[in-house]
C-alpha cells in the first residue's frame, strides 16, 4: 500500500503509470516481485504493450521500480522500490 501511495503522489508520472503499478501489486509473488510477463500486465492495466513498456520505464526512471532482466526467454522481474520517507 505504501508503494501505491508513493506512485500516486508522484505527479511527474503519467496517470496510467498508477494503473500499471496497481496491476503489478495485485499479481506479485511471495517475494514481492512481479514475474508473470507483460501480456497479463498490459491487459490488467488496460494499456497497449507499447504503452506498458514506456510506463514501466517511467516507473523505473522515477525510482519506483527495479527491473531485473534474467535473460533468455525468461520474463523480466519487476520489483517495487519503497522509498524512505523524506528522500526522493
Structure characterization notes:
There is one protein chain. This protein is mainly alpha-helical and 88 residues long. The chain has one domain: Arc Repressor Mutant, subunit A, CATH 1.10.10. It is 45% helix and 9% strand. The protein contains four helices and two strands. A two-stranded antiparallel ribbon has the order 1-2. Helix 1 packs antiparallel against helix 2, helix 2 crosses helix 3 and helix 2 crosses helix 4. The longest helix is centred in the middle third of the chain and has 13 residues. The mean pLDDT is 93.
Comma- or semicolon-separated keywords:
88 residues, mainly alpha, Arc Repressor Mutant, subunit A, 4 helices
Uncertain residue segments: none
Strand order across the biggest sheet? 1-2
What's the CATH C level?
A: Mainly Alpha
Residue share in helix: 40-55%
Tell me about the largest β-sheet.
Answer: 2 strands, antiparallel
CATH superfamily: Winged helix-like DNA-binding domain superfamily/Winged helix DNA-binding domain
Tally of DSSP helical segments: 4
CATH architecture: Orthogonal Bundle
What is the number of independent domains?
Answer: 1
What is the number of beta strands? Answer: 2
Question: What is the average of the pLDDT values?
Answer: 93
Order of helices and strands: HHHHEE
Gap between N and C termini, in Å?
A: 18 Å
CATH topology: Arc Repressor Mutant, subunit A
| Overall body shape | globular
If you compute it from the alpha carbons, what radius of gyration comes out, rounded to the nearest whole angstrom? Answer: 12 Å
Q: In percent, how much strand structure appears in the residues?
A: 5-15%
Which class of secondary structure composition applies to the elements?
mainly alpha
Amino acid at each position: 500500500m505504501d508503494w501505491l501511495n508513493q506512485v500516486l503522489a508522484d505527479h511527474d508520472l503519467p496517470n496510467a503509470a498508477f494503473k500499471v503499478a496497481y496491476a503489478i501489486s495485485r499479481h506479485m509473488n511471495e517475494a514481492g516481485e512481479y514475474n508473470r510477463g507483460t501480456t497479463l500486465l498490459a491487459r490488467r492495466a488496460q494499456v497497449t504493450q507499447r504503452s506498458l513498456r514506456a510506463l514501466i520505464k517511467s516507473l523505473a526512471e522515477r525510482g519506483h521500480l527495479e527491473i531485473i532482466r534474467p535473460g533468455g526467454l525468461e520474463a523480466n522481474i519487476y520489483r517495487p522500490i519503497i522509498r524512505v520517507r523524506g528522500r526522493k
